[in-house]
Amino acid sequence: MTRDAGAATLRVSVTDRCNLRCAYCMPEEGVPLLPRGEIPSLTELASAVAWLVARYGVDRVKVTGGEPLVRGGVPEFVAKVAAIPGVNEISMTTNGTRLAGTAAELAKSGLARVNVSLDTVDPVRFRELTRGGRVEEVLAGIDAALEAGLTPLKLNSVLRRSSFRDDVPALLDLAAEKGVEIRFIELMQTGTEAAWAIAERVNGADVRDWLTSEGAEIAPLPDRPNAPARRSAISWRGRKVLAGWIDPVSHSFCDDCDRLRLDARGRLRRCLMDDLAFPLVDLLRRGEADVAAAAASYVAGKQPPAAMTIGSTMASIGG
Ligand code: SAM
Ligand code: SF4
Known about the structure:
Elements: E1 8-13, H1 42-56, E2 58-64, H2 74-82, E3 89-94, H3 99-109, E4 113-117, H4 123-130, H5 135-148, E5 154-158, H6 164-178, E6 181-185, H7 194-200, H8 204-213, E7 217-220, E8 230-236, E9 239-246, E10 259-262, E11 268-269, E12 277-278, H9 280-285, H10 291-300, H11 314-317
Parallel strand pairs: 1-2, 1-10, 2-3, 3-4, 4-5, 5-6, 6-9
Antiparallel strand pairs: 7-8, 8-9, 10-11, 11-12
């Protein structure tokens, strides 16, 4: 990918910490956290974002984590990034548990929209999957985000074999009621809970077939070639719901990928599945010469991965 490749998306992880412990993302005891001294300040991260925007045609920035809203100062970070010339949109992926108290401030800081992760609306299954989370907080966060105008709001839902027949209908009902788009994501195997992930993975195609057998009509919609989600309009119980399908395992969209990531250590990552990272913030901090040439050669090596398996966790890289 080069400067001439056109507009690109940058996902920035502002922390590897989280207040939840989703079974597919983190072991119950949490992941080894970065020593505080190794975590770049949000000012350093914002400068690295500006550096990348100037060189790689980045026009959309997504703030993620870990859970971005557990780190203090994120609204100020959002304001800094929103002010970078060339950034057309700044959005956030969040578990939603802290949105109720922050949505208005985030909107004022320049955040355009949010994706809220919600895999089930059932309080018991939510508590089990997240190991202690309260679904009511997420639902309140969604309402606050809609109220603050952080739209179009999208729900991100990871599909699970054991519960999709209950969860998907309830999530479609919620999406219809709130007038939001929903994206169904195939479970990816990461470094955590591998056996559980293998047992729980279900193909998006199987879920679509099941929905059709339940009376849903699923009409594909046209999309950008490098969009990770394939969009569709679902007629569901007399209402229309926009649904995206992210099938990273059964349908690889890697050939068209235009994403870069900055992880919680300030390292540039060309792919979620690629363990080789480029220590951008560290090199910029030390004032190294030729950072641009070294970064360009790292980014030029971006290629589709051999396998869709992540060695560490999404929370440490920035999902
Ligand atoms: N904490 C925030 C959240 O949950 O939205 C942002 C970070 S989280 C790592 C970003 C997204 O990655 C979430 O939507 C989560 O469901 C997804 N994710 C994490 N691990 C995953 C896995 N093993 N397979 C599929 N999606 C995963
Ligand atoms: Fe936390 Fe998001 Fe990972 Fe769940 S998916 S443990 S909310 S970082």
